[in-house]
Amino acid sequence: MTSTNDIRRSFLDFFGKADHVQVPSAPLVPYNDPTLMFVNAGMVPFKNVFTGLETPPAPRATSSQKCVRAGGKHNDLDNVGYTARHHTFFEMLGNFSFGDYFKEQAIENAWTLLTREWGLSPDKLTATVYHTDDQAFDLWRKISGLPEDRIVRITTSDNFWSMGETGPCGPCSEIFYDHGDHIFGGPPGSPDEDGDRFVEIWNLVFMQFDQQADGSRRELPSPSIDTGMGLERIAAVMQGVHNNYDTDTFKALIAASERLTGVSAQGDHAASHRVIADHLRSTSFLMADGVLPSNEGRGYVLRRIMRRAMRHAHLLGSSEPLMHRLVPGLVTEMGQAYPELVRGQALIEEVLEREETQFRKTLDKGLKLLDEATGEMSEGAELDGETAFKLYDTFGFPYDLTEDALRARGIGVDRSGFDAAMTRQKEAARAAWKGSGEAASGEVWFDIAERAGATEFTGYSSTSGEGTI
Ligand code: ATP
Ligand code: MG
Ligand code: MG
Ligand code: MG
């Protein structure tokens, strides 16, 4: 079996041999984009290169980039534990051409790596192209020899990438792997494509146009390539398993979680173990890159992820803080590739233990309130916003933790009621403050608090400048 660490190496070496400079992963907190919460794609550190603001490190580059998708335009938090292929933290393997090679070479490279170097069977692969991109369609025919019905033309924005309202954009081609008909899901473009049977492994973006503010598109003088492949997804394929959580890295993390909780990951508790393993990675990597739990901004996203994992640890019956005890296992698995984990280990363990100790003080009481409020409810019902807000305000339950806790029973949460309760509380606090006769400074403080709002991250998500591939 090829280990995940070996696959990462093999990818970088393959492109290294094809004259790509190996660039280390950038930190998860973007240095070049204040509108973006976390780096969520391999191209993010190169944004300014693609727009022409910075000169490229070389004509070609390759990287394995740490990514977090838990907030903003790309939020996979709710998928974790429930799909076979989504994580909050994952590694994106990429190769980049900055005005150097284009479509033909990009498709050629991808096909050669997958089918020759790594030996995947072409029978298992399907490619998609943007419906108007005849050039990509013809290149796939020529290079891969795939039959025409496995080069699927897609009309949606899934296959057209853009950096923002203006700037570089272009069609993309995604490569899917068929995990077999014993798994639910249809091919790309079909109504049930969201299943786990046909899994998207690699996205090739052909940056070809420059989107103008007036809606027109100009051809870029030197088109570029940006690709992204999920390491955990290709590891599942190469290790012959049908779920990312069954790959070597996750197996080791889940085994440690089983050992420490004494609860098997087979059967009913699979999702909890997966959530714990996934959130252990995202929280540890975020802290290694300098994010600490807080009540606002990035720190609050971190806290939300942590607390959700801690609720699952509680669900597995662990009576003591669990998360920090899983860190050594993570460092064993990933510390060599990411030395910042080793450097941060002591801090990560300490913060996790402190947070879990703290959260456990109110967790039981909050869960009891939640049980009382929903005891009589059946599938399809909705928890009122007031109670969800009380859980947040008094018991420290982030909104999505409440949602996650009720999900298995098919019960929803009234989001607008929650938001309304939050607004009312802020207004009450503001009014109370004005009464003190210091309205001016109070105003400023509350405005700042509001802008950095504990649960309001729409400022980040509504910007279209988000890096994505
Ligand atoms: P999906 O449609 O499966 O959600 P995507 O189209 O959002 O994936 P891209 O933005 O194209 O993903 O990212 C490039 C690659 O990164 C994907 O082809 C996939 O292999 C991987 N990837 C994306 N999101 C995740 C995730 N949450 N966890 C693990 N891998 C991911
Ligand atoms: Mg996605
Ligand atoms: Mg997709
Ligand atoms: Mg994609």
From TrEMBL:
Subcellular location: Cytoplasm
Biological processes annotated in GO: alanyl-tRNA aminoacylation; negative regulation of DNA-templated transcription
Domain Alanyl-transfer RNA synthetases family profile span(s) in chain numbering: 2-469
Reported cofactor(s): Zn(2+)
Reactions that this protein is recorded to catalyse: tRNA(Ala) + L-alanine + ATP = L-alanyl-tRNA(Ala) + AMP + diphosphate
Main localisation: cytoplasm
Any one cellular-component term (Gene Ontology): cytosol
Keywords from the named record: Aminoacyl-tRNA synthetase, ATP-binding, Cytoplasm, Ligase, Metal-binding, Nucleotide-binding, Protein biosynthesis, RNA-binding, tRNA-binding, Zinc
Enzyme Commission number(s): 6.1.1.7
GO molecular-function terms, A-Z: alanine-tRNA ligase activity; aminoacyl-tRNA deacylase activity; ATP binding; tRNA binding; zinc ion binding
Cofactor binding mode and count: Binds 1 zinc ion per subunit.
Record text about domains: Consists of three domains; the N-terminal catalytic domain, the editing domain and the C-terminal C-Ala domain. The editing domain removes incorrectly charged amino acids, while the C-Ala domain, along with tRNA(Ala), serves as a bridge to cooperatively bring together the editing and aminoacylation centers thus stimulating deacylation of misacylated tRNAs.
Entry function: Catalyzes the attachment of alanine to tRNA(Ala) in a two-step reaction: alanine is first activated by ATP to form Ala-AMP and then transferred to the acceptor end of tRNA(Ala). Also edits incorrectly charged Ser-tRNA(Ala) and Gly-tRNA(Ala) via its editing domain.
Family named by the database record: Belongs to the class-II aminoacyl-tRNA synthetase family.
Protein name per Swiss-Prot or TrEMBL: Alanine--tRNA ligase
